[in-house]
Amino acid sequence: MRVLVACEYSGRVRDAFRALGHDAMSCDLLPTEVAGPHYQGDVFDVIGDGWDLLIAHPPCTHLAVSGARWFKEKQQEQADALDFVRRLLDAPIPRIALENPVSVISSRIAKPSQVIQPWQFGHGETKATCLWLKGLPLLTPTDVVSGRENRVHRMPPGPNRWKERSRTFQGIASAMADQWGRV
């Protein structure tokens, strides 16, 4: 299966699919953190290249409800971010998963197909993650664990906080590859 992982610099989802034998490439404006097939640039440069599956992680900066207090000051940025999401969901790819935290996508475009948590996939943390799915089944939890803490939300301020918060949990990446790689 040919898999495009949009807006991913970490390579986690890409590498989970590659480990199972899929032809997967990540794409982001940033360089990849780990060696592997990666297109550094605009996802729409490569979105029409015959992919079977798109997993998109659009930036949540102007979408997540955690930043709602700033929405009034960034209406154009939010409109642009929502347009980006619509374009990803309308991509000419038969199977699409779009991932974002709880956000205005739910009220402005569509309700999510599913909301998952890291603790359902082997990580003792909470971070509600919404999935909008086209042509894909819901993800089935693989390893429900206790000891749930809100580590991601409580990360201290710093120049790389946004980067650390945006990484896909390995258990979720592996579940995506295992379950959606068989569709």
TrEMBL record:
Native source species: Stenotrophomonas ginsengisoli
Protein origin, superkingdom: Bacteria
Protein name: Phage-like protein
